[in-house]
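Why run this: before we spend reagent on co-expression, it is cheaper to look at a predicted model of the complex and decide which construct boundaries make sense. The entries below are exactly what would go into the expression plan.
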Amino acid sequence: MEAGTIYITLAALFGIFMAWGIGANDVANAMATSVGSKALTIKQAIFVAAVFEFAGAVLAGGAVTGTIRKGIVDADLLSGTPELLVYGMLASLLAAGTWLLIASRNGWPVSTTHSIVGAIVGFAAVGIGVEAVQWGKVGTIVMSWVVSPLTAGIIAYLIYQSVQHLILRHTNPLERAKRYVPVYIFLAALTMTLVTIFKGLSHVGLTLSIRDSYLLAVGIALVVAGVGAYFIQQIKPDRKAEKSQHFITVERVFAILMVVTACGMAFAHGSNDVANAIGPLAAVIAIAQSGVVASKSALPVWVLVLGGAGIVVGLATFGRHVIATVGERITQLTPSRGFAAELAAATTIVIASGTGIPISTTHTLVGAVLGVGVARGIDAIDLRVVGRIFVSWVVTIPAGAILAIIFFFFFKIVLP
Amino acid sequence: MANVLANIFGSSPVKPLEQHIDLAYRCAKKLHDFFAASVQGDWATAAAVRDEIETLEHEADSMKKEIRLHLPKSLFMPVPREDLLELLLVQDKIANRTKDVSGLVLGRKMQLPEQIAEQFLEFVDRNIDAAKQARKSVRELDELFTAGFRGAEVDLVEGMIEELDRIETDTDDKQAALRAAIFEIEGTLNPVDAVFMYKVIELTGEIADMAERVGRRLELLLSH
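The model came back. Tokens follow.
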């Protein structure tokens, strides 16, 4: 068999496995709140997640994939030895996958993004040379891992504060929820579509003028808000249930908003995390097909489609179980709180995706949940777990790097 | 399988606290049947009710321990953990006092004089009312958490606590009247019985006192 074919086959296998893992585990974070609050059934959640993860991956996943593929390693240094990049990318996929497997066996909260970035930096710095790493870009990425949870936390704090002031603290919260929730739906849909149009569509070959972009985004957001408002009007208060829980009908109104933010979260997740699986794959394909390290070559859309499909398969096979388990355990995240966290996280992630920065979607969501907590929205947050997240954050990067280095030298010996 | 999102949530103390006050109230409520039987001299029924009281008190107690166990210091909550633990403690005392007073009465097979029986039963019922109002107020905890301890919900709970205070004042008045009534007939009573009668009245009155302290604790939460 020709070397190029072996490379592509291996990379595709590792990449699809990675995408499958992302779909099986991480997507639950986006959908579990909606299932836990009974805004969506599991079947509906899987359907919504599949559609929006796929759309996010294909429509807005290009920029981050580009960063993973050619933003971290300086390709110009490798123009004479393209096979080194192939070994490195294969090693990175395998290292990140192995590390995630070890971590989830032991119950450590690690991030796919941190693993893959650590792995790529590791193989490049040790296998090729310290100068092969684009440290400026890596610095930006690592900074964004601090900034993104923080940003999401601040946005979530502000959103939840506004919910309390506009709705929850009034004597007639239901009436006010019916009035204001469509506005939140409009804003959520507007943010998602705007970022997608401005940052994502060019990757699939569509270009719109700025005026048209805004018009299209506002139009889509209005339609979504209109549909949401229609469903909200159908909600009738359950007087009997309200005796013991005054906010029960109000939460049902928020549940509709939550369906929209769950879509946004799935979209955002697809747009950022698909790159972890297919960024290295795309790099391998480009080299194997052309035989050279071309930093300018375009990303074939079918690779994004493959990644999106891998996520959907993971979701359909294992994700169902994970969503159900997580949903049961996060009942504190009622729709009024959950939407604030999801909207904040999704906005932050989509902006990062548009800018091509790979961030941890889970950590961003955790930051958003903490933001709601600081706004006195969460009954109890376990700070020990937050601490553990930080530790695993620090450990994952060298762990991914070391594994990648080992695999890199292994491939260098074994592969043609 | 570890899921970060699922793990960052500690177990919420809100519903358990509401369930605990419900147990404490149901326990206190049994005093009505207990004393109704005891003034009739129906000690078989009284003993049966006392068993139910003991079971409920025991349930409340183990629930208290369970809640404490799930409130480690590492939790980040909108209100101080200490205040919630204090609330739990006074809630539990409603059940404790119920058990104490029923145990005392049953142990001595203490029959209340006919002249004050009706007045005494009214006094007991008013104490139960106080416990009921405490339960009503604590049941607003989840709404308070949702509203972030601000706004209309706070006014609502403050109104409930005011009502609780009124009921407690009422029990104080009834307690004073009852003492005066016993003093009137003290000469006709066995001295040891008389002493214990005062004791029973005092212990029963403490149920309303504890209910009022539940209100005070809730008020403290509101001021955060």
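The mean pLDDT of chain A is 86. Residues 76 and 415 of chain A are 23 Å apart (CA to CA). Bring this page to Monday's planning discussion.
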